[in-house]
């Protein structure tokens, strides 16, 4: 008799839990995968209903995880296998976690609703995240080239790649190959403290929305394109500590300029 009651109670409780759960099962599985491979996650990451029981750093809308904010919380790990399962993710910030190593998988390019990404390095598929407005990958230890596909992020307003070990040239569009000169809504180009080489592309002068341009502390050479004075909204222009030669553009007309 007693054991029958226990079975009955178990069924009732299971159903209550099932009804109460507010987290989509794919998102739950993906969070559990993170939980089992990363260390130092917040203590509130307990139970089987992250949306319902408010796991720290996780925000949901309609049972789907829409935001993951784990910046500077000392998490560590190296596996990101399931992160692309969060189909409704809009905001992903994993920055400033020195123990978090590795690369986001190419499938990150499937997260079409992502507007904000703070973590890298990122694969070339970044170019399919059409809604990205903020891309901040600064202060990590990324090496290699700037992916030209970033030029496909036509809604990008803020691009901060500073303080890494990026090398190669600033990508410029040419035929079917995208480049940063296509980012015609960009306001902040911040690439300082890398190992970028080659010239400052003349086509940078086409991104007339720019308000801040930081190219300092790289190994850029050649002359400064004279059409940079086309960037009439720029208030801060940093070019120092490169190997640039020749005259500066005529800055008359750059009426917002407060720092060169
Ligand atoms: C993106 O979000 C909208 C709601 O904001 C939703 O209808 C749509 O299905 C989402 N897209 C994906 C790929 O999940
Ligand atoms: C830019 O974002 C808008 C929504 O804000 C979207 O409709 C549009 O497709 C995006 N543009 C590009 C080129 O992806
Ligand atoms: C960039 O750095 C990597 C090592 O991190 C090196 O293999 C590659 O040749 C460098 N590329 C350029 C263009 O300097
Ligand atoms: C200035 O920018 C506009 C808009 O992108 C462009 O049409 C024009 O050719 C540029 N002028 C120069 C000198 O680069
Ligand atoms: C700039 O540096 C590259 C090597 O990174 C070199 O091939 C090129 O000749 C240099 N150009 C100028 C104008 O100094
Ligand atoms: C700079 O441009 C302004 C107007 O655009 C012009 O009046 C001035 O003479 C130019 N200065 C130099 C040194 O070319």
From TrEMBL:
Residue stretches making up the Leucine-rich repeat-containing N-terminal plant-type domain: 25-61
Alphabetized Pfam families for the sequence: LRR_1, LRRNT_2
Signal peptide positions on this chain: 1-21
Keyword annotations: Leucine-rich repeat, Repeat, Signal
Stored InterPro entries: DNA_repair-toleration, Leu-rich_rpt, LRR_dom_sf, LRR_N_plant-typ
Source organism superkingdom: Eukaryota
SUPFAM superfamilies to which the protein is assigned, alphabetical: L domain-like
Protein name per Swiss-Prot or TrEMBL: Leucine-rich repeat-containing N-terminal plant-type domain-containing protein
Species whose genome carries this gene: Ilex paraguariensis
């Amino acid at each position: 008799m007693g054991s029958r009651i226990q079975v009955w109670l178990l069924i009732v409780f299971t159903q209550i839990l099932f009804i109460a759960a507010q987290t989509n099962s794919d998102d739950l599985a993906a969070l559990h995968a993170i939980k089992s491979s990363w260390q130092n996650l917040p203590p509130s990451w307990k139970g089987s209903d992250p949306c319902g029981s408010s796991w720290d750093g996780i925000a949901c809308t309609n049972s789907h995880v829409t935001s993951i904010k784990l910046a500077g919380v000392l998490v560590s790990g190296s596996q990101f296998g399931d992160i692309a399962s969060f189909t409704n993710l809009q905001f992903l910030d994993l920055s400033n976690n020195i123990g978090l190593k590795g690369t986001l998988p190419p499938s990150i390019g499937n997260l079409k609703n992502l507007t904000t990404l703070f973590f890298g390095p990122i694969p070339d598929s970044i170019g399919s995240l059409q809604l990205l407005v903020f891309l901040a990958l600064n202060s990590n230890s990324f090496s290699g080239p700037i992916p030209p596909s970033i030029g496909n992020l036509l809604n990008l307003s803020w691009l901060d790649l500073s303080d890494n070990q990026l090398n190669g040239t600033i990508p410029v569009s040419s035929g079917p190959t995208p480049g940063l000169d296509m980012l015609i809504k960009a306001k902040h180009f911040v690439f300082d403290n890398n190992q970028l080489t080659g010239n400052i592309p003349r086509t940078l002068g086409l991104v007339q929305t720019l308000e801040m341009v930081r190219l300092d502390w790289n190994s850029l050479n050649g002359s400064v394109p004279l059409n940079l004075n086309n960037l009439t909204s720029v208030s801060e222009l940093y070019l120092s500590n490169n190997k640039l030669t020749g005259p500066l553009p005529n800055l008359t007309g750059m009426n917002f300029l407060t720092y060169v």
